[in-house]
Protein: FAD/NAD(P)-binding protein
Organism: Saccharothrix hoggarensis
Amino acid sequence: MVVVGAGPRAAGLLERLGANAPELFDGPLEVDLVDPFPAGAGRVWRHEQSPLLRMNSMAEDVTMFTDASVVCEGPVRPGPSLAEWARTVASAPDLSFVDSEGLVDLTPEVRAELAALEPTTFPSRRAQSAYLRWFHERAVASLPAGSSVRVHRGRAVRLTGTSGMRQRVWLADRAEPLVADVVVLALGHLDREPEPEHVRLAGYAAEHGLAYLPPDYTADADLSAVPPGADVVVRGLGLAFVDLAVLLGEGRGGRFTRVDGELRYLPSGREPRLHVGSRRGVPYHSKTGYRLRGAPPEPGGFFDAGALLARPGDLDFRADVWPLMAKEIAHGYYRELFTGHPSRVAVPWARFADEFARLDWYSPGMRALEEAVAVEDRIDFERLDRPIDGRVFGTSDEFQRFVRDYVTADVARRSDPAHSADLGAFLALLGVYGQFARLAASGRLRGEDGWWRGFFSYFASGPPPGRLEELLALSRAGVVRFLGADTWVRAEGGVFLAGSPSVPGHVVRASGLVEARLPEHTLATTADPLLRSLRAAGEVRDEDGQVAVAAEDSRVVDAAGVPHARRFAVGPYTTNKAYAAFARPGTNAPTFRQNDEVARAVLRVLAAETTLGLESA
């Protein structure tokens, strides 16, 4: 078989192949992995990137292994989280960590980081790269005896072969194709052709001697185009912006130091001035730094993708789906509030939960029930989503103070166990997120314009609290200035102009513009040569910009709606998207379930091929 893509998703698939092979396939497997980036880590987690870049998950919350929570047909094979693995590595005698199933060479810097790693540390991406490379080697070693795995550091550009034929995968730098019974596309996050707006802005910047960076992976962007001391507008306040601020600040020689308990930034003089805005106008929420204090999490059962899909007809996101999602998330929040902090509520959890179950989320009865909770402890999704709505500031300096106070309060809240109900909401959000992928893959969901994914990232996938402290220091030092909500940007007068209704009359004139977000990939605009060729040949079906795959086993669906017997696709570019290639332990992660489904389907195809002895056509 050929797997196009050799990052963590491919490694997870290899692990599931090894786990399921004893039941479904007799004999060795021959696997070819194709990827221009290193096997195991892939593009996003490769070692060769700035050591300043970190994960936005704690070490104890990162695992590549199935556990007892994962509901799948195949066997569960537990293994260490990143934090547990790091403890084992720390006791290894030299820079090569070896166990019975894997080998990873560690640089002295990564070895030192792993030795000092605590469960609640937010590790560097290089530390995660080492863990992923080790897991990859372990997954390879778990395949049936006599199996072989060959890695091709190149790019796949074409795929041919009907369902009744062996498949041929053509590589950019190889004359002869790879021939396989089965092909799995595990392409990860992909680039796209430039949008017309970005082409226009790039042309404008070139004409006027300005700097412009389109959406990109921050670690890959050419930041040398951003000159020191320049005023630069940045669109986006998510994780891409956090990485940008790191690389253009500390990455250019600036230093952080703590004075009287406050973190301060000492500029190197080579930083630009970043004027940053977005739709919300505030950074993503900090990751939590505490554990639950109340009863163990328990799904409310209000948001049930299967029950929704059993209804006839289309599903409207706002009318049919979001109220149930909101109720499920609120249930997780209030369960932790009532059981972990009973002194702050007026009634017992059992009584509240019974009434909560009967009421619609958007109903007067629910609002009356919430009166058992102090106003400051109630969950309000609309206020969370748009914290600046209805506020106008007289000056930019006034707005800077507001945002700094807002971020300071957020970091304090996400670091204080008194607010562990936020973690209850976060865990419920993860469960909802996994189920939502099933609805999105059904083709029956209407009216979801990307808001949900953005809200999820804003609430649950923000930076570590330390990164937000650094952002506050950069703001106090004048390296970062906040523009406001609903930021607008215009290219006129030979510069970039930017402002926000939050601060009427305040307009920034800048010599640079950076789009701090990932490219929005669609099948019609993909830059991936393999997907482009498949689309041109009618061998993939475009569903709302994504590669259509069968819901039950991720087989690639062609333009006529027919699943291909020998082709599978997994990843965020498909209709069965399950974004994270690794997961938080104990969360029945959809990626693990999907990997198991695909691995079992692949093994059945290979077993049938061996039994029937089909010849290539």
The chain has a mean pLDDT of 94. The CA atoms of residues 314 and 444 lie 5 Å apart.
